[in-house]
């Protein structure tokens, strides 16, 4: 390795890239990183962090309305979008500096600029040429825009964080995390919001009861839901508004259109044509269980591999990579029972199998389901409901899926994820004393299974 400038060169300093660089350096490797855009990647700059800050901001309107039921008489309030964006930017800049500091403190050499592979061991960054024994690609993904007439009028989720002003009306295209979350954000900030999805029901990889519950709750918030609606073209009017035309001829007039229809691995202009790195049809880098590509010294992890597109997954993959390559311990990533949350309003938290998945895997399952009005809303006046669901393999009594829709669902399901990984049984749930009064206690007080939650 002494023949190379570095033992490891990491392209991309998102959550996975930074964690890999830091850990490998701590194991004694000579590590360099390169990034052309921003420190911290998608999650810190145009993903998880600013998105959740915007979710907080959008919920204050409901909080103010609900306060009256608790005796608070509040005057009129005005929302200042530029102030929110400015404060968000300050926080992101602070996080950027923290990420840079972590690399510096770990002894990592960082290059500002786009890195391109010259061959399997050499990397060009600007006018600098360096060599490395091993190369790790952690460039993440980028939002996509559908190829339709007028696509130049569409913005992506990246753009939404930097709007100069709020539109009066917005049309959001898509049915995944990003689309559903931004629908709640804009509606909560007072924007007339329409969500269009090509299928019968959004969030297609989630449990069906969860999907239906979220649909009903978003409808209560006056978000217009257009299912089985695929935009065929977009045109701009003389007054700078837009008209989106669906494939069936229906039209929606709006002031802004946000395309949240998916993301693609960020592999363009990396010089992959100079090496033997195989890609899938969507551009995702193909790797084995050690994150090795078809080029033996080049590795990849995170969203660029299009396995599980979640920040904690990329971080865990980075830890496995570092341990295996420089830590002397062979570590493999476990992709089973990964918990996740969707910060729609109310939130989704989920871990394990959906009911449909469980019924296809096990011959006999028990379903426990509870829908209720949270204690808070007995006085708030809100009709918002919560849902909690347990899925149990009847033969072993093991809980194989836990799902929740409700306030702080992600916080609650994080603890449940530990139980799932430990192989918890329904008997253990039943023997656990709940914390009263909380929503979470419902998980340990459900006793009567339903015949079926399907349909």
Q: How many helical elements? A: 12
Cα end-to-end separation: 60 Å
Poorly predicted ranges? none
The CATH topology of the largest domain corresponds to FAD/NAD(P)-binding domain
| SSE-based structural type | alpha/beta
CATH superfamily of the largest domain: FAD/NAD(P)-binding domain
User: Could you report the average pLDDT, rounded to the nearest whole number?
Assistant: 96
Radius of gyration: 24 Å
Please describe what this structure looks like:
This protein is an alpha/beta fold. It is built from 12 helices and 21 strands. The chain folds into 3 domains: 6-142 and 264-326, FAD/NAD(P)-binding domain (3-Layer(bba) Sandwich), CATH 3.50.50.60; 151-261, FAD/NAD(P)-binding domain (3-Layer(bba) Sandwich); 340-444, Enolase-like, domain 1. Helix 3 (48-67) crosses helix 6. The mean pLDDT is 96.
SSE arrangement:
Elements: E1 6-11, H1 15-26, E2 31-35, H2 41-46, H3 48-67, H4 81-105, E3 109-112, E4 115-117, E5 122-125, E6 128-137, E7 141-143, H5 157-160, E8 169-173, H6 177-188, E9 192-196, H7 208-220, E10 224-226, E11 231-236, E12 242-246, E13 251-254, E14 257-259, E15 263-265, E16 298-300, H8 311-326, E17 340-342, E18 348-352, H9 355-361, E19 365-372, H10 377-380, E20 386-393, E21 399-405, H11 409-421, H12 426-431
Parallel strand pairs: 1-2, 1-6, 2-3, 6-16, 8-9, 8-14, 9-10
Antiparallel strand pairs: 4-5, 5-6, 7-15, 11-12, 12-13, 17-18, 18-21, 19-20, 20-21
């Amino acid at each position: 390795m002494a023949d190379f400038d570095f033992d490891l060169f990491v392209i991309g300093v998102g959550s996975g890239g930074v964690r890999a660089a830091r850990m490998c350096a701590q194991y004694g490797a000579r590590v360099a990183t390169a990034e052309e855009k921003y420190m911290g990647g998608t999650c810190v700059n145009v993903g998880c962090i600013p998105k959740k800050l915007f979710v907080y901001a959008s919920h204050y309107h409901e909080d103010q309305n609900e306060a009256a039921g608790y005796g608070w008489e509040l005057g009129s309030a005005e929302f200042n979008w530029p102030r929110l964006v400015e404060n968000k930017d300050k926080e992101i800049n602070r996080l950027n500096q923290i990420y840079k500091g972590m690399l510096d403190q770990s002894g990592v050499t960082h290059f500002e600029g786009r890195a391109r592979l010259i061959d399997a061991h050499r990397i060009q960054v600007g006018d600098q040429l360096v060599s490395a024994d091993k190369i790790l690609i952690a460039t993440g993904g980028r939002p996509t825009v559908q190829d339709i007439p007028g696509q130049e009028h569409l913005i992506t989720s990246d753009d939404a964080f930097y709007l100069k002003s709020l539109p009066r009306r917005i049309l959001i295209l898509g049915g995944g995390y990003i689309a559903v979350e931004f629908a709640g954000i804009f509606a909560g900030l007072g924007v007339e919001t329409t969500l269009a999805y090509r299928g019968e029901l959004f969030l297609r990889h989630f449990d069906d009861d969860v999907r239906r519950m979220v649909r009903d709750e978003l409808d209560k918030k006056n978000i217009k839901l257009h299912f089985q609606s695929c935009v065929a073209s977009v045109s701009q009017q003389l007054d700078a508004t837009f008209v989106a035309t669906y494939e069936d001829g229906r039209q929606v007039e709006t002031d802004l259109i946000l395309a949240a229809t998916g993301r693609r691995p960020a592999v363009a202009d990396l010089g992959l044509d100079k090496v033997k790195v195989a890609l899938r049809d969507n551009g995702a880098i193909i790797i084995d269980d050690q994150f090795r590509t078809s080029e033996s010294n080049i590795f990849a992890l995170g969203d660029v591999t299009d396995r599980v597109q979640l920040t904690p997954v990329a971080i865990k993959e980075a830890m496995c990579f570092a341990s295996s390559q420089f830590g002397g311990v062979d570590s493999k990533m476990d992709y089973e029972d990964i918990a996740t949350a969707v910060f729609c309003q109310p939130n989704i938290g989920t871990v394990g199998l959906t009911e449909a998945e469980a019924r296809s895997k096990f011959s006999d399952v028990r379903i426990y389901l509870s829908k209720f009005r949270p204690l808070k809303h007995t006085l708030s006046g809100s009709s918002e409901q919560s849902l909690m669901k347990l899925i149990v393999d009847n033969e072993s009594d093991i809980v194989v899926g836990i799902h929740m829709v409700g306030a702080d669902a992600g916080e609650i399901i994080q603890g449940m994820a530990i139980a799932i990984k430990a192989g918890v049984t329904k008997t253990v749930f039943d023997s656990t004393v709940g914390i009263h009064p909380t929503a979470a206690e419902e998980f340990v007080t459900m006793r009567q299974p339903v015949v079926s939650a399907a349909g």
